[in-house]
Amino acid sequence: MKHSSLPSQPKLFSHLYIERGILEHPQTQMIRVKFSDSQVIVIEHYKEVFNRSAQSFAAQSSAKKLILARKEGKFLHEGSQYSDGFGIKQFFYASSVMGCLYDCDYCYLQGLYPSANTVLFVNLEDAFEQLTPYLGEDTLVATSYDTDTMAIESLTHQTKSWLDFAAQNEKLHLEIRTKSANIKALKNNIPNDRVTLAWTLSPQEIIDRYEHATPSLQKRLSAVREAIQLGWKVRLCIDPVIYTENFDSLYPQLIETIFATIDPESIEHLTLGSFRMSQSHLRSLKKLRRSDVAFFPYTVKDEMATYPETVESYILETLLAKATQYLPQERIRTWQRQS
């Protein structure tokens, strides 16, 4: 298979598009100071820029622009069938940022959004207001579903805001999924047992080929180890697994590398899952023609594209056999399509 060409290091936020109605918002002011050399363009609504037709996702990925806006309507959405709700009945994901600083070839955001630019909604307080009526019962919120909030934390401070809000609401559970090595937000908060930090880990060769602009495996592992030392609950995710010609060596070696660095007893779970995506998003990825990941001969059932059952089973059996050398099976969670 051919592999994607790697974009150059992204030049971040040469332009700030700002909705007129939030020009005086404190976070807008903070970001304008931080990017004082960026060109500011005042707009009426973020969709004027983000939803334009005929945009080039690939070109924008190497020169992302930042759009500051006010979220109208729902911040919270029901948890996806592609994600694990860990048995908590009320499971939502929050959409407070659209787009990601990272540029992973297998990411569904390429099929979901018309633009690679980033939209930051500055009115996170409205998300907390919308969530409050649910907090009489245990409720899980995935805060990094449409972005990587830890990666953009120095800009948004949203992770810290979520941690502060969770500390005040004893029924609120958070999952913060990330590839970031930036854990500064964690150092100023007291660890909370209802907050799980979930790091996505991949073999370095997969990172180099498909996870552009992300931290190296070693940097992620260093962040994991430091978070654990600080007292935070951590889940490790080898998910999505990208099946390549050297899967048999790359992924078992990854598990060896992880547990040569991280004490298996110090993590909550290990999650294993192979690539999966809605068929409609996969069609969009194919149109972009950015990566061989989009062109694997997946099977589609109930609008979900995954590896053929034999490949999917082989992936999980191989990785389970390796992972159980370090962890009991009850601490390993797997994602597999229901037949």
CATH architecture descriptor = Alpha-Beta Horseshoe
Content of β-strand: 15-25%
Computed over alpha carbons, the radius of gyration is 20 Å
> Total number of helical segments?
13
Q: N-to-C terminal Cα separation, in Å? A: 28 Å
Reported by name, the CATH topology is pyruvate-formate lyase- activating enzyme
The CATH class designation is Alpha Beta
Explain what this protein looks like in three dimensions.
It is a single chain. This protein has 339 residues and is an alpha/beta fold. The chain has a single domain (15-334), classed as pyruvate-formate lyase- activating enzyme (Alpha-Beta Horseshoe). The protein has helices spanning 26-34, 47-50, 57-61, 109-112, 124-131, 153-156, 158-168, 184-187, 204-210, 217-230, 247-261, 279-288, 309-323; strands spanning 15-19, 39-43, 66-69, 76-78, 90-94, 97-98, 103-104, 118-121, 139-142, 172-178, 195-200, 211-212, 233-241, 269-274, 276-278, 299-301, 304-306, 332-335. The strands form 4 sheets. An 8-stranded mixed sheet has the order 4-5-9-10-11-13-14-18. The protein has a 5-stranded mixed sheet with strand order 2-1-3-8-6. Strands 15-17-16 form a 3-stranded antiparallel sheet. Helix 11 packs parallel to helix 13 (309-323).
